[in-house]
User: Fold this.
Amino acid sequence: MDINKKTKKNLPKFNFYWVYLAIALVLIAFSFWPMSTSTSEVPYSQFEKALSKGSVEKVNVNLSKQIATATIDAKCYKEITGKTLKSGKEIEIYTIYPSIESFTETVNDLKAQNKFTGEVKYNEGRDYLSLFLYSVLPLVLLIGFFIFMNRKMMGGGSGGPGGVFNVGKSKAQMFDKNSVKDKVTFADVAGLEGAKQEIEEIVNFLKNPKRYTTLGGKIPKGALLVGPPGTGKTLLAKAVAGEANVPFFSMSGSDFVEMFVGVGASRVRDLFRQAKEKAPCIVFIDEIDAIGRARGKNANFNSNDERENTLNQLLTEMDGFGSNSGVIILAATNRAEILDKALMRAGRFDRQIHVELPDVHERKEIFKVHLKPIKVDNSIDIDFLARQTPGFSGADIANVCNEAALTAARKNHTAVDKQDFLDAVDRIIGGLEKKTKIITNEEKRNIAFHEAGHATISWHLQYADPLVKVTIVPRGQALGAAWYLPEERQLTSSQHILDKICSLMGGRAAEELFMGVLDTGALSDLEQATKRAYAMVTYFGMSDKMKNVSFYDSTGQNEYGFSKPYSESTAQLIDAEAAKIIDEQYERAKEILLKYQEGHHKIAQILIDKEVLFAEDLEAVFGPRPWASRAEEILRDNEKKADNAEAGKGDDKATADGNSGEGNPNIDSSADKGDDQAAH
Assistant:
């Protein structure tokens, strides 16, 4: 029995499509196969000759096909055709007559002459096979194709579960505690402590609601995860699915949008119907801005738009007359400013959880998570990696770790070392080195002077970003690049921005002072400097003639309908102020370069010779930088706090040891009491 079972399991699964193929081949064979092997077609004149011989007893006339058929013997066949049959049996001949009138007249003449005494039988002669092939079969195939496509879509095609007849059904995937594959928990989410705490609280609402409702509180109806791309919004939702002991529905905002009118609203209704049946539960909608954009702000987003109907239904389901007790809505977006105000109000999304880019301490925790599967050597300093990746999101850090492993494998390393990580960061930021790109000596010199201008000015400005390295090896679309370590400031002063603009103009200033020719290599620098200058004037109110005026719209809704909320004269003033800021910093950059001209030329020569320059090389030329970076200050403060904490623990221990021994001669109890009284 076991052998038979194994044999049955090993047999290939029967495919029903072979039956369809066999039927099609039979039909094709019937359409081309002759009706009889003893049937022969003859001309109409020979058919008349056979009738006149008197050997034909019966003639069948097919009126629909204009074919006359008769049976004759081998002797008659030889007389009318001159051919001899191999067998002596009778043969059936047929011919196509010109018209029934002429055929009837011919038969009557032969009968009048007593040459033909047989019987003529007329019939319609319908060809049912042709009728089936050309009339019935196409209809059968069309119905079969429709049934086939419907069954195909039963498994989750564009119609969702249930096929095209259930196109309005929700496409949400439901997970429970035991069905989540590759389960993600809160322990797998590094950093994001504030956001994780709020998300954990939502899960606790559903696990132990009495803890919060006994005091009269209500469970929040929804929470919106807001933050830049790659910061871990979807990862947090996966952690909720892994931690919660309740059903978890997950779908994307684009899953509601369909080409059919009314499908989006129908899917919203079906989603909340399923959620109410499974309550308490969590519903997660990723990229909710696909359907949650502000109504009436888009010319193509009119009252008949399918997305607006879907949004209206979503608003109704989230906070309408119906009860959604026990259903918590989680949504994620990186474009919260374009969402409709009705969607953002309390009662729908009660909480907005901001998932920001990680700081240096959070990046350290994220590196620890992504370095677990990677084989690294002892040269890896996670603190150093965290400081070298300012502004990186969690997804960027994962990409750095993966790129470092690929780089190490490309170099045939047995483990990933520090230089592999630095190369990975350089490649992600600037692109792959293009050492094969042909550059003339003059172009190389121009690039070196340009990059040396940036390095010189940034070294001598207090609030410029600290330099990491400079290279004149082409990367990506850039012929040269300078790497800086941006300061992670919470507040930025006007002097910070001006120093940044001045350092950006250093390359163009070096071109004018030391080469006498301007080239297109400063395009990116000019773009960034111009944007910062206009931001100072129009956003931050840092202009001399336009103080405390900001045209920034934090809502992104353009509430008052102004495409340009200032006059033409103000626009001219903005242009003048921005140009003034850039010109002043450009002249300032030239003054610094002239002051440190000798050092600039040394740095340029180092770049020409070695093609790469590090902060240590600048320190050797200009001396130590007189200002400490903000990151260094923070690290020093943290070290002091750690030392003070250790010292405090030591003092507490000493005090505890002293109090534990009675009669200790080093303790003067009366003096302590006197001091306490004096203090009072």
Confidence is low (pLDDT under 50) at residues 5-9, 155-165, 653-680. The first strand starts at residue 39 and ends at 41. The first helix runs from residue 2 to 10.
